[in-house]
Design brief:
heterodimer, A: alpha/beta, nine-stranded mixed sheet, eight-stranded mixed sheet, 26 strands, globular, B: 126 residues
Chain lengths: 407, 126
Amino acid sequence: MPNADAVALLKNTLTMILAGGQGERLYPLTRNQAKPAVPFGGLYRIIDFTLSNCLNSGLRRIFVLTQYMSNSLDRHLQQGWSIFNPDLGEFIFAIPPQFRLAGSWYRGTSDAIFQNIDILERERPDRVLILGGDHVYKMDYSRMLRFHVESDADLTVACIEVPVQMATQLGVMEIDAQNHILGFEEKPPTPRPIPDNPNMALASMGIYVFNTRSLVRHLSEDAKRNTAHDFGKNIIPTMVESGRVFAYNFKHGNCNRSVYWRDIGLLDAYWEASMDLVADQPEFDLYDPAWPVHTHSKPYPPARLNIGSQTPSRLILGQGSVVENAQVERAVLSPNVRINPNAQVCDSILMEGVVVGKNARLHKVIADEGVISPPDCTIGFNLEEDRKRFTVTEGGVVAIPKGLPIE
Amino acid sequence: MKTILIADDDHNLALLYEQELIDEGYKVDVVHDARAAINRVQNDPPDLLVLDIRMPGMDGIDALNRILGINNRLPVILNTAYSNHKDNYLTWSADAYVVKSSDLSELKQAIRDVLSKRAAEDNPNG
């Protein structure tokens, strides 16, 4: 594709990020904030990964559609992502529900776009890229856009091969040799496997490129029906029947060393993805200068380790954090965390401002912002006891909410 | 008998529509502005609304979208002297878009098409 065409492709594409979900399965981390605003990886908020993908792909016209508890998300976007110049037609704007159409909160993923159709009317993009704000991955969306145009598609859906049992929670598609989608089913009880591997299925990543006119036509028709107003349940299956709908395999757009995509909308998945970051050889590379992840961070002092003879190992240490003669093994520490002498912390995620008291022991814990675990307390070793006070997941992760005094 | 509501600020034109559609076998009601149309849809919904776009006060495009929030199943035909609104995405949730003409055959055909399509949707087994 000639350079001028490649630039036009990006300029004529509008990006809309769906950031309005309640994030109930991440509770208590979503008690006071929307899921895309939940911290991840010591320094970031979950939405930073999607926005950085946009930035690194050259996409500069972005609307973030917010809804529930958007206060901290708005603040984060304001502080960390006011990096474009709207005078040049480049922007990231957060848009709360306008109640212009339908007069209700967003009833489904596609309703969120439909209710903002006036934006599409005003901006008149050729294509719309629709993204979620709650996944961790690195992807060059411009490659997917090129594929979409070259396939002459009405809609292109990004997909990834996942184990069949995981596919029951995702949209699953069947494709032909030309990547034309022949069938699409949302959360099927028995997902259809891919032809050459009965254990794997082709799942939607919730990343869509639509030709704008096709998108508006289908959203407008769907708005007149009593459906779930959902891309996976309604819009895509309808378009598969009548239009040119293609699958774009994530492996062609992936910008991480290995193919890595995680939905971290569930506490156990959030914990696992966090632990991936402190593995011996982290699968997800935060340190690649070719694909920087942008965020906002407060000006804390440098992190300090005073470890004496004890060896902390494999941890992410946020700015301003202090580890004082404590034992820390596989942990993600956000900024301004303090771990006091003789404490033991392992397999845990400690959010900003957490204090771990002397001799305290934490195992497989997610401690939300500002949690203070007093000296000598023990959490994560007796799940029956922990269950009386905290959220304990199926995977045995103990989540300690903000603002709960621990005795 | 199906009831058709006509919303048009041009009284003479509305009268013409009323007579011709009564001759077609419909029950016809007329209002002359968008807010009256919305009130009527809220309180006593017709089977179909023929909605003008350029009216004093609220225009037909705003009314169309407000009505969608009140009753998304109500068939609406936008009926306007101007074809340029047809490209406006905010008009695409209308069931049909008819450009005004002294010959009402296109409007009558659109009414028949929209009503029969809706009947088929509501009653898929015929």
